[in-house]
Amino acid sequence: MRAVGFILAALLLASTSARIISADKAPYVRSLTKRSNFDEEIVNLGFESAIHKRVAKHIRPDYTNAWQRRKRAAADDGSITNFGSKDPQPQRGDKGASFLHGSNVAIDKQNIDYLSPPPTDAGVVPNLKWSFSLSKTKLLKGGWVREQVVTDLPVSKDIAAAEQRLAPYAYRELHWHRVAEWAFVINGTVRITGNDEDGGNYVADVQAGDLWAFPRGVPHSLQAGPGGAQYLLVFDDGNFDAQGTTFMVDDWIAHTPKDVLAENFGIDASAFANVTTPDPYIVAADSWPSL
């Protein structure tokens, strides 16, 4: 009891002579002082007594010195797109070096993150885009078509695409696929037809900005309006060029007995005597019937 009383008396005596320390002098007060937009440093504003060092290390670690040693560099978000009148270069900060020869500036500007990768890119980043300008164009009487398949863009195993142009009134002959087809009309008017296995028939005119979609196996044809048409086609298989993916009506006619065709369509077999081979793919025309 005497020991306890002695301790209490000592504490009371200390409290009567204690002084108040302002917040900016307190040993545990720290302030975050922003020196610049990208340079932050923790500064210790109080004196560090022996007791402080013994107690503080059990409360929280002291990162003051580490923060002072590590100055933060300016943020690099990869948005290096403002070149002004200068051509883009394979440089970023103090890394890389300028070209010593010519480069395709237009493509460099379109793919700046390939030319000058941001620091957030790690490992191998596969090519995720393909330009139709790099595809071989198939020229036909009445239009053209160019494709992107998995051999062009290896990462695209589940999607292929084609850009197609029809001259005024030209046809994309009746055909069907083992894959589904989705389309977006870029410009012009397209008359689409579809015939399903249940005997349903569909005809409609679509304009720029419209969409269409045909399930796999549904025969369909396309015809441009008086101003021609251009559209984007997308298929749910990257290997769209594989044999057995697309079937043309003229190829089917050429491999079907003429008497079977005559019986099916109710016309004379001679009507199928001059089927075009190989298939024309696109057929030129000078009009279309009114709906």
TrEMBL record:
Cofactor(s) required for function per UniProt: Mn(2+)
UniProt-listed GO biological process terms: oxalate metabolic process
Stretches for region Disordered: 77-99
Molecular function in Gene Ontology: metal ion binding
Keyword list, A-Z: Manganese, Metal-binding, Signal
Presence of keyword Electron transport: no
Name under which the protein is recorded: Cupin type-1 domain-containing protein
InterPro entries, alphabetized: Bicupin_oxalate_deCO2ase/Oxase, Cupin_1, RmlC-like_jellyroll, RmlC_Cupin_sf
CDD domains per record: cupin_OxDC_N (cd20304)
Species: Tilletia indica
Tree of life domain: Eukaryota
Chain sites annotated for binding Mn(2+): H175, H177, E181, H220
Cofactor: binding details: Binds 2 manganese ions per subunit.
